[in-house]
Amino acid sequence: MLSLLSLIKIPFVKYAAIALIFLGLVYAGHRYSFNMGVTSAELKHTIAIQEERDRVEAINNAAAMLAEIELDRLREVIKVRDANIVRILSEAKEDIDAARGAISSDSVRRINSVQ
Q1: Which residues, in sequence order, are CB contacts of 97 under 8 Å at separation 6+?
Q2: Of the chain's two ends, which shows fewer C-beta atoms within 10 Å, N or C?
Q3: What is the distance between the alpha carbons of residues 40 and 25, in angstroms, rounded to a whole number?
Q4: CA 59 → CA 50, 52, 64, distances in Å?
Q5: What is the DSSP letter of 100?
Q6: Distance between CA atoms of 109 and 94, rounded to whole angstroms?
Q7: 39 or 61: which carries more pLDDT confidence?
Q8: What's the number of domains the chain is made of?
Q9: Positive/negative CA dihedral, 54, 60, 61, 63
Q10: Rounded to the nearest 5°, which phi and psi values hold at 89?
């Protein structure tokens, strides 16, 4: 490169060529640094996004397990409720005072057992 500059006899052209080479190197360094910064930021944000996705997935899995436990509990509550309804209806059919116009004490007891 220096041999090329030594061939140039006009001082202004020498300095202009040196300045252009220097500006080209500065621009190349700037582009390289910028691209490295972009790559670094993309990597950092990709890792952060993946960590957040993993955290959300773990929370959702825990919530799904709790929901399944609650669903099992509610199924058991429904089963007990249905058994109580069948028992109360069967007792109502056997009540000898069912045809009366007023509510009997057995009917009051059955009504009070409903919760």
Answers
A1: 104, 106, 107
A2: C
A3: 22
A4: 14, 11, 9
A5: S
A6: 14
A7: 61
A8: 1
A9: positive
A10: -65, -40
Residue 10 CA to its chain's centroid (Å): 68
Dihedral angle at the C-alpha atoms of 68, 71, 73, 77, nearest 10 degrees? Answer: -170
Question: Residue 70: which pLDDT band, with cuts at 50, 70 and 90?
Answer: very high
Tokens 């080479």 — which residue? 21
Domain of 21 in residue numbering reads as: 2-113
Given the structure tokens 């069967």, which residue do they identify? 90
User: H or E segment at 66?
Assistant: helix 11-94
CB 113 within 8 A of CB 84: yes
Cα–Cα distances in angstroms (integers) from residue 17 to residues 26, 28, 85, 88, in the given order: 14, 16, 99, 103
